[in-house]
Amino acid sequence: MSQLRRLPSQFGAHAVRLLAARDMPVCSWRSQSSWPPTTFPSSRGRSGSSYVEEMYFAWLENPQSVHKSWDIFFRQASEKTSAGSAQPQLPSVIPESRPAVSSRTKTSKLVEDHLAVQSLIRAYQIRGHHVAQLDPLGILDADLDSFVPSDLITTIDKLAFYDLREADLDKEFQLPTTTFIGGTENTLSLREIIRRLESTYCQHIGLEFMFINGVEQCQWIRQKFETPGVMQFSSEEKRTLLARLVRSMRFEDFLARKWSSEKRFGLEGCEVMIPALKTIIDKSSEMGIENIILGMPHRGRLNVLANVIRKDLEQIFCQFDPKLEAADEGSGDVKYHLGMYHERINRVTNRNITLSLVANPSHLEAVDPVVQGKTKAEQFYRGDTQGRKVMSILVHGDAAFAGQGVVYETFHLSDLPSYTTNGTVHVVVNNQIGFTTDPRMARSSPYPTDVARVVNAPIFHVNADDPEAVIYVCSVAAEWRNTFNKDVVVDLVCYRRRGHNEMDEPMFTQPLMYKQIHRQVPVLKKYADKLIAEGTVTLQEFEEEIAKYDRICEEAYGRSKDKKILHIKHWLDSPWPGFFNMDGEPKSMTCPATGIPEDVLTHIGNVASSVPLEDFKIHTGLSRILHGRADMTKKRTVDWALAEYMAFGSLLKEGIHVRLSGQDVERGTFSHRHHVLHDQEVDRRTCVPMNHLWPDQAPYTVCNSSLSEYGVLGFELGYAMASPNALVLWEAQFGDFHNTAQCIIDQFISTGQAKWVRHNGIVLLLPHGMEGMGPEHSSARPERFLQMSNDDSDAYPVFTEDFEVSQLYDCNWIVVNCSTPASYFHVLRRQILLPFRKPLIVFTPKSLLRHPEAKSNFDQMVSGTSFLRVIPEDGAAARAPQQVRRLIFCTGKVYYDLVKERGSQGLEEQVAITRLEQISPFPFDLIKQEAERYPGAELVWCQEEHKNMGYYDYISPRFMTILGHTRPIWYVGRDPAAAPATGNRNTHLVSLRKFLDTAFILQAFDGKTF
Questions:
Q1: Using CA atoms, how far apart are residues 405 and 365, in angstroms rounded to an integer?
Q2: Cβ–Cβ contacts within 10 Å for residue 474, how many?
């Protein structure tokens, strides 16, 4: 349609409509020598035919003088007329002279009327959803606008828009190939055309799909909905639908009777969602899907657990027990946030199906990318590259779907090669309200689903009080996903019978809506009455179905009193068979050494410095980097990038899949990694040497991501959730940028195990360091991670033989700031060798990537070596600890600044420097040893971060605990500040100079009291 805007205004709207009906370009209808005509048609009235007349008769004179598409159209029309079709007669021979005006007018009207009918059909296909009867309450417009598009025939007077009259209603018209409303008929009367279009597009289903670029896909949808008689259901299908509605509604009624004062976030008003989801699952199972991962908010979760996932009802009911104690492991979460995993037989298809409902907090759409990541991982491990075995379903609330930005981020992952799950079925529970917020105040778009248009996902709006329409739409949606491997949205336009929760009073803010809701007949009664009236079921059969399910609920309620079933492990959404013992505990509490044989290190180093493919031309600058790696390998040393390479490569050798994702991770933000080589002469020809280490190695995936932190981190978290035998890493471009992914960190990573007993080994690589680069490119905010660490600063630990591993097992995550490549190498390998999984937060360096002192020797990485939580002083001060006057503790990059300053002042024998590589859980045992080793030394904590940031507030009380409050730990670093760093280079250097001076003025703390 963009080309239509080039049409001169004097051509009029009529010509535009005729062109739109044929999707024809308008910039070159005829050659310039014979066009334009001297007069143009007006926008209304019969004079509008003159323009088409000129085209038609120009074609008669010379077919080459009009655009090819018009030439084809006129030829086809002539051929059909010659064959005796019902199409109006068009001349089939070229006359020697122009016909009389009356003949020309008659012929052009025939052409014009046919094109008008095509334009009419297209108008319904594009805009029919705007007048569909979607609101079950009959009081709102789903698109927030009561306007009726002027090109839809809703009244007789609208015929004039197409220059048609009432007399034309009974004329027969040839149907275009872009519609299926005729079925096996090629012609229909205009009256019947309008009736069928209204039946398809303006009843209880509203279709948005004409924006899709693919003609084949649009035709597929047209055929599914326009073909007469497609929405026919057998008696058995109707009875199944009724039974599912009974279970959905009676489950909610049972909860309301037993726990009327409990929050349940029930499904009343959208009970049809249960048969809708089951239809999607049935159809997908029929098409070969074996594993479905679901994500959803809290509304209706218990019902989905009971009637879709088929969790034992007694497990659900016992969660309502007010005497329920916390599980042995974890704090647990409210019942309507919990997840589930279940393998069962699909009774409709008689095929095995595995269903996972991912645990999710509140209404937040944070679960969307998590589900996608888990789905991608399940597909990867099955070798399901086309999504034929594994798929995802996401359920959304309307307000959240429109308002939560992560929905958009997730959609934008849907077609990216390393993130696509080959299509997701999105089901929107459209309450037409968000808590107490009217949709007219909650979104700027007509529908809450408009964000899906960005990825050409078809959107099917449906009135949730028409169960058969819902079931048909869901069946088509599942078929679409499994045919085209693309996303699709089902918008269930419904209502919320109660308030936001069962304790809420919605009449405060939506009085008119809830007056209507109180009068609204429940969908179950309406559908049962319909089936009884048509003789599909009897009243007795309906009542027996209700009584049957009520009895099931009562029996489960009785069993729920058994305290033996009270365990949160029943709510796991990602079990790892064989990884833990039968009781869910680690098989051991030991971790083997993380070093590897030197020949393996050498082999990886050699591959990392080579190009495995022949005739592959790399950048000259990259050649120097590869030569540098080769030189380091010969000298048995590694820098940061090579240490990472060796950690990854050694895990691949051991069968561990490694996946690294994030913005620009293939090269690395700081141009240090270069895991993907690019041919400088052949576009898109790449090489990943890491996948050429060994013939039988595990695969390595490294992928640049969308410019998203929230969505991509959630995706990688879900990916890591699927299996414990994979190292999954997400790297922020700068550590600061995890700010926009904080929701994933807070809701899933730091608390996941406590809330849902869900182990996860996700690794976050967060570049961090005060380099004078400004407040947005300096700090990964270590204070946030440390504040959320669950180890107790006041509890003096008991140092058992397995203290290091048991301390890791008890923590919620591990926080490290490595100062050497060897430390980084070991901590990555330890992440996999531990007998359990914990999230790992790594504050990675920037300047240390190329710092000449920040290198490690093979001797620190070979077999028998391990990760050092604390690296003690090993210089002159360590040889005479009694003479040391100050012991400085630090972590990360500042160590190199301190060593340089100590050397320049000649204080190697008087000042010892100890590094904390692992900050949380706090290495109480090793810190105690270090402090006792230097009994006469002042203890100082030095950090480059500001005092109210960084590590000091975390380490200080823990030092006091381990030292029994007998020795102070002084702070040296930058003063408190609001911003994490300065953007002024000089200010940065002045503050650095200041705290380095303070660190080495040995009398700085003399005379001060603790």
A1: 9
A2: 28
Short-list 754, 748, 784, CA closest to 768 = 784
Instruction: Collapse the DSSP code of 942 into the 3-class scheme (helix H, G, I; strand E, B; otherwise coil) and give the result.
Output: strand
CA angle 197, 202, 206 (to 5 degrees): 110
Domain spanning 873-1000, CATH class: alpha beta
Asked if residues 362 and 404 have their Cβ atoms less than 8 Å apart, the reply is no
Mean pLDDT by 10 residues, the chain (1010 residues): 32 40 38 35 39 65 74 67 45 41 64 91 96 94 90 86 91 94 94 96 97 96 96 96 97 90 85 97 97 92 92 84 52 64 88 90 85 97 96 95 95 96 97 88 93 97 98 98 97 90 83 91 97 97 97 92 63 78 84 97 97 93 95 97 98 98 95 96 95 96 96 97 96 93 93 84 96 90 96 92 93 97 98 96 96 96 97 95 96 97 95 97 96 95 96 97 94 94 90 92 58
CB 107 within 8 A of CB 90: yes
What is d(CA 395, CA 426) in angstroms, rounded to the nearest whole number?
A: 6
Strands 814-816 and 840-844: parallel
> Are the CB atoms for 479 and 540 separated by under 8 Å?
no
Q: What is the DSSP code string of 808-840?
A: HHHSS-EEE--SSHHHHHHHHHHHHHSSS---E
Q: What tokens appear for 726 in the block?
A: 């994979």
Which is it for the CA torsion 23, 26, 31, 33, positive or negative? positive
**Gap between the Cα atoms of 600 and 593, Å rounded:** 15
Residue 763, classed as helix, strand or coil, is: strand
Tokens linked to 491: 């918008």
| CA-based end-to-end distance of the chain | 77
Write the CA distances from 802 to 590, 874, 930, integer angstroms. Answer: 7, 26, 20
Question: Phi and psi for 579 in degrees, rounded to 5?
Answer: -80, -40
The SS3 assignment for 488 reads strand
Q: Which two tokens stand for residue 851?
A: 């710092």
CA distance 133 to 463: 7
Instruction: Quote the tokens at residue 648.
Output: 């990854």
Tokens 């290190």 correspond to 601
Distance CA 731, CA 718 (A): 15
Pairing of strands 870-871, 657-662: unpaired
* CB-based contact 423:386 (threshold 8 Å): no
Q: Is domain 598-860 annotated with CATH 3.60.40.10?
A: no
Torsion angle of the four alpha carbons 143, 146, 152, 153, in this order, in degrees rounded to the nearest 10: 140
Instruction: Tell me the domain boundaries of the chain.
Output: 1-132+146-195, 235-571, 598-860, 873-1000
Task: Compute φ and ψ for 49, nearest 5 degrees.
Answer: -75, -20
- Asked whether 391 and 424 are in contact (CB, 8 A), the reply is yes
Helix runs in 609-734, H state only: 620-634, 640-653, 710-722
Query: Collapsing DSSP states into helix, strand and coil, what is residue 782?
Result: helix
- Strands 726-731, 856-857: parallel, antiparallel or unpaired by DSSP? unpaired
Are 669 and 663 a contacting pair, CB within 8 Å? yes
The residue with tokens 């009785």 is 558
CB 908 within 8 A of CB 890: no
- Joined together, the tokens standing for residue 929 give 């040893």
Dump the DSSP string for 346-363. Answer: ETTTTEEEEEEE----TT
Burial level of 948, CB count in 10 A (0-12/13-18/19+)?
middle
**Cα-based angle 117, 123, 124 (whole degrees, multiple of 5):** 100
Q: Are both 235-571 and 873-1000 of the same fold? A: yes
CATH class name, domain 235-571: alpha beta
**pTM metric for this prediction:** 0.88
**Identity of the residue numbered 538:** T
Ramachandran area for residue 660 (φ above 0: left; ψ -120 to 50: alpha; else beta): beta
